Amino acid sequence: MLTKKEIRQQVLKMRRDMTEDQVAEFSQLICNRIRETEAYKEAEKICLYMPIDNEVDVTLLAQQAWTEGKSLWLPKTNGTLMEFFKFDQDTSFVTGPYGVLEPVSEEMLQIDGRTLVLMPGVAFSADGGRIGYGSGYYDKYLHGHSECKTIAVCYRFQIMDELPIEEHDVKPDEIICENAII
After folding, report:
1. Range of the domain at 94
2. How many CB atoms lie within 10 A of CB 108?
């Protein structure tokens, strides 16, 4: 079995090789699938992320979510920790660590059972395993907030038969790609 580092290198290269059109098409398909889930329909608070390096663009959900009266939240990192902060159409952004845009917002998320966290990642397995980028931000955050629902999003090529998962790796409730829900 490949190591986490080898899997990251292999999958990230494949993702970087995607065209803008592929990213846009697959992101739209994935967002449409997310909207059909019970977790999305029941959520009042939805945690998105700002996509980088051809990640699935979940920000495509924003306008409809606002129209439906849902509040939206984005992560900010501080050292080894991550928290989610509210954003809307008028929010300004600054570039945070890793080159990711973060909202200029002071309203921090208070998670409850009507919160949905959409998670990026590098690789996933059919049994719900997830390998992130190696910093453990989502794993640490979700260990302390088990009451929320989680959906990981990815492209089909990011799903593997098995992964070297460790005890601290948090498994999402669902994994959605352009042609399947796991």
Report:
1. 4-181
2. 11
Nearest to 80 by CA among 143, 124, 125, 128: 143
DSSP three-state, residue 119: strand
Instruction: Check: pTM over 0.90? Answer yes or no.
Output: yes
Tell me how long the chain is: 182
Report the number of distinct structural domains present in the chain. Answer: 1
Distance CA 103, CA 74 (A): 7
Backbone φ and ψ for 151, nearest 5 degrees, come out as: -130, 125
Q: Is 166 exposed, middle or buried (0-12, 13-18, 19+ CB in 10 A)?
A: exposed
CATH number at residue 161: 3.40.50.10420
pLDDT-derived band at 107, boundaries 50, 70, 90:
very high
